[in-house]
Specification:
The structure holds 2 protein chains of 2 kinds. By secondary structure, chain A is an alpha/beta fold. In chain A, 31% of the residues lie in helices and 28% in strands. Chain A folds into 3 domains: 194 residues, 3-Layer(bba) Sandwich (FAD/NAD(P)-binding domain), CATH 3.50.50; 122 residues, 2-Layer Sandwich (D-Amino Acid Oxidase, Chain A, domain 2); 46 residues, no CATH class. Chain A has 11 helices and 20 strands. In chain A, a hairpin with a 2-residue loop joins strand 11 and strand 12. The mean pLDDT of chain A is 93. The model of chain B has no long low-confidence stretch (mean pLDDT 84). Chain B is built from 2 helices and 4 strands; from the N terminus they run βαββαβ. Chain B has a two-stranded antiparallel sheet with strand order 1-4. In chain B, strands 2-3 form a two-stranded antiparallel sheet. Chain B has one domain: Alpha-Beta Plaits, CATH 3.30.70. Classes of the chains: A alpha/beta, B alpha+beta. Chains A and B meet through helix 4, strand 14, helix 5 and strand 18 of A and helix 1 and helix 2 of B.
Chain lengths: 396, 66
C-alpha cells in the first residue's frame, strides 16, 4: 500500500493547466505534487491541436519539437462557402500552431518536473478529503492501491469532467447550450493546405463549426463541435461530421487513422473558482473561450496565476477562500471580460440562420478590416445589410 | 425495461466497442453521477434520474436509455 503523503500544493491532472500551475507553485518555493490518472501524460489526445502563440512568453513556454506546422492564418467559410480569410496578425488568439498535443503536454510536465514538482502517474483521485468544510486533500489510488494525500492547497485541473470541483461543491455545472459535443478524425490522403486552419460555419455544425487543422501535407485533423442543446439523436456529432466529409471530395477520399472525442464548454465565466483549500483551473474551471472553443492559452495563463497564489497561501498558512481571492481577481482581470463578451457573441451566432451567415460573409467580401473584432465586422455588415445588424445593436 | 425502482435502464457501452472514454458525459451530467476511470465508465444507479442529457452529449452514441 502506498504511504500516505503530505505536500504544500497538490495538483490533480497533468494537462497544460495542471503542469503550468504546478510549475509556478514550485518556482515560488512550494513543495508540489502533481498526480495524473493516466499512464502517459498527454495521451490519448483529446484536442483539435490548434493553438495561438502570442501568450507563450507570459507563462514561460518555449517553442519545441511538438510543433507540426506554423499556419499563416484562418479561412472561415459561410454555409454557401463564401470565404473570409484572416491573416494571422488580424486573427486574435486562435491561429498560430498546429501541434502534437501529447508532446506539448509532456513538454509542460517536464518544465514542471524540472522546477521541482513531483509527479505520480496512474494515480487517480477517488474522493475529496474535507475537514470542517475545508478541502484538505484527496483520497487517491496509485496503481489501484488506495492512500491519502493531504495538502493545504488542492488544485482541480482535471479537465472538462471537473470531478474535483463538483466534489468540492463549486458551481461547475453547465447548461446544454453551453457545451459542444465534439468528434474529430485524423485523416491522411486529404487535400489540406498547411498554410491555413479552416472553419466551416452554419447548419453543417449547429452551434459549433467544422474545423480542418493541417498537421503536414496530406494529413489533417478534421473535426466538429455541435451544441448539445441542438442535438436530437444519439451520435449526432458523428453523423454531422460524416455528412460534411462525404460532401467534400478533398476529404471524402481521405482515410481516418485516429478518432478523438470530447466535451467542450462554451459557457460564461464560472461564478466561483475557489473555496477553502481548493482552486480550479483550466477546462475544469470552464475557462475555454466560448467563441473559439480554445482552452489551452486560458488554462496556462490562469495556471501561472493559480500556481503563484497556491505557493503564497501555503507559505502563509492561509489556504482560505478569502486568500484565494488573489487568484480570482488575477485570472478574472486577465480573462473574464473576453470570456463573457465571447459567450454573448457565441449565443448570438448560435441563433443565426444559414441565410444570415451568408449575408454577413457577403458584406465582408472585399472589405479590408484593419483589425478583426466583432465591432469592426458588424460595422462592415451594417453598411450593406443594416437589417442583419439590427439584432446585434448591443454589440455596436 | 424498467428497473426495480421503476426507472428506465441506462446503459453505457464502455467496453470500448463504442465508447472512446472522452468524458463528455461526465462533464455534462447535472447530478455528477457518472465517473470515468480511464477506460471504465460507471454511473450511480441511485442518483441518475434518466434525464438523458448524457445521451445527447455523447459524440458516438455509446449511451442508451430504454
Amino acid at each position: 500500500m502506498p504511504k500516505n503523503l503530505t505536500t504544500d500544493v497538490l495538483v490533480i491532472g497533468a494537462g497544460p493547466a495542471g503542469s503550468m500551475t504546478a510549475k509556478w507553485a514550485a518556482k515560488k518555493g512550494a513543495n508540489v505534487l502533481m498526480i495524473e490518472k493516466r499512464q502517459e501524460i498527454g495521451s490519448p489526445v483529446r484536442c483539435g491541436e490548434g493553438m495561438s502563440k502570442d501568450w507563450f512568453s507570459e507563462v514561460g513556454i518555449k517553442a519545441g519539437r511538438w510543433i507540426n506546422v506554423e499556419v499563416e492564418g484562418a479561412r472561415i467559410y459561410s454555409p454557401s462557402e463564401k470565404l473570409l480569410e484572416i491573416n494571422e496578425k488580424h486573427a486574435g488568439n486562435e491561429v498560430g500552431y498546429v501541434v502534437e498535443r501529447d508532446g506539448f503536454d509532456k513538454a509542460l510536465a517536464i518544465d514542471a518536473a524540472n522546477a521541482g514538482v513531483d509527479v505520480k502517474l496512474k494515480t487517480a483521485a477517488t474522493a475529496i478529503l474535507k475537514e470542517n468544510g475545508k478541502v484538505v486533500g484527496v483520497r487517491a489510488k496509485e496503481f489501484g492501491e488506495p492512500f491519502e494525500i493531504r495538502a493545504p492547497v488542492t488544485i482541480g485541473a482535471d479537465g472538462f469532467e471537473s470531478q474535483i470541483g463538483r466534489w468540492a461543491g463549486l458551481p461547475t455545472n453547465i447548461a446544454l447550450r453551453d457545451m459542444d459535443s465534439c468528434l474529430q478524425y485524423r485523416m491522411t490522403n486529404v487535400d489540406c493546405d498547411v498554410r491555413y486552419c479552416d472553419f466551416y460555419l452554419g447548419k453543417v455544425a449547429p452551434g459549433g463549426y467544422v474545423w480542418i487543422f493541417p498537421k503536414e501535407e496530406g494529413l489533417a485533423n478534421v473535426g466538429i463541435g455541435v451544441q448539445v442543446s441542438q442535438i436530437r439523436n444519439p451520435a449526432e456529432a458523428r453523423t454531422y461530421l460524416d455528412a460534411w466529409i462525404k460532401n467534400h471530395p478533398a476529404y471524402a477520399k481521405g482515410k481516418t487513422i485516429d478518432v478523438v472525442g470530447g466535451g467542450v464548454s462554451i459557457s460564461p465565466p464560472i461564478k466561483q473558482a475557489a473555496a477553502d483549500g481548493i482552486m480550479l483551473v483550466g477546462d475544469a474551471a470552464r475557462m475555454i473561450d466560448p467563441l473559439t472553443g480554445g482552452g489551452i492559452a486560458n488554462g496556462c495563463i490562469a495556471g501561472k496565476i493559480c500556481g503563484e497564489v497556491a505557493a503564497e497561501a501555503a507559505a502563509a498558512g492561509t489556504p482560505t477562500k478569502e486568500f484565494f481571492q488573489r487568484y480570482e481577481k488575477g485570472w478574472r482581470a486577465r480573462l473574464e471580460e473576453k470570456l463573457y463578451r465571447n459567450w454573448l457573441a457565441k449565443e448570438k451566432l448560435c441563433s443565426l440562420s444559414d441565410e444570415t451567415f451568408d449575408k454577413i460573409f457577403d458584406a465582408l467580401e472585399g472589405v479590408k478590416l484593419e483589425k478583426l473584432t466583432v465591432h469592426n465586422i458588424l460595422k462592415a455588415v451594417h453598411t450593406k445589410y443594416p437589417e442583419v445588424t439590427r439584432e446585434f445593436e448591443s454589440f455596436l | 425495461m424498467p428497473s426495480q425502482q421503476g426507472k428506465k435502464t441506462l446503459h453505457i457501452e464502455s467496453s470500448g466497442q463504442l465508447c472512446i472514454y472522452c468524458g463528455a458525459c461526465v462533464g455534462i451530467c447535472p447530478l455528477n453521477c457518472i465517473y470515468l476511470d480511464e477506460t471504465r465508465i460507471t454511473f450511480d444507479e441511485r442518483i441518475c434520474t434518466r434525464c438523458e442529457i448524457c445521451v445527447k452529449a455523447c459524440p458516438v452514441g455509446a449511451i442508451e436509455i430504454g
